[in-house]
């Protein structure tokens, strides 16, 4: 990959915090894979920072990003574009509007595909040619053969074991290099809280780190669903706790996202051991 363009990236413009991982080699190794022309699959639980990692990699490679959020309703038009009516020289004409896959291939951008394993399997084979050595696809909407720019690369993300997801077929999976993105913990999590939330109370930061470890353990043994351990939800709670008592913040940002009252009670019970009386 020949990436030498200098520009102000969306990540830098909005001042988003950098991706922080327990395993310091994760970012560097994923970047190496992309620079070698590989496509990357990020595998991890919801709220573990997969999207932030993709943004950080786009920033390091100085590439604009096109995004696709997969759902069961995803179709070829959402990937490749659509036809619409326009006006040219006073006449109504049919125009083609490029989709994110075509724009990324043509302009040499990073394509980020979130929740790849939620999409219907019959939609995804259109990407096979773009993801292998051919680096091209035939657009069925225009009959054009689109050849990828040298900078074009793909990062996809999946949450395994969630309702509505399915296993990726071998042909698609083999087109990626796979990186696991676990929940960040310990000092790395404390650093993330300090950088990415409004919470400045050092003692409370440490307590939230310990609470996160309890939530992760509870999710690993099945007492809580995986989403209860989401770092994204924890950061929401940290933001709120800068302006209200931590237990209320945890009720809104973490417990409130769970549908089972017993799970909500467990989250608050764990939190109470750290923030009772606050």
UniProtKB/TrEMBL annotation:
Pfam families: AAA_5. It comes from the Bacteria. Residues 36-187 form the AAA+ ATPase domain. InterPro entries: AAA+_ATPase, ATPase_dyneun-rel_AAA, CbbQ/NirQ/NorQ/GpvN, ClpA/B, P-loop_NTPase. Belongs to the CbbQ/NirQ/NorQ/GpvN family. This is MoxR family ATPase. It comes from Alicyclobacillus sendaiensis PA2.
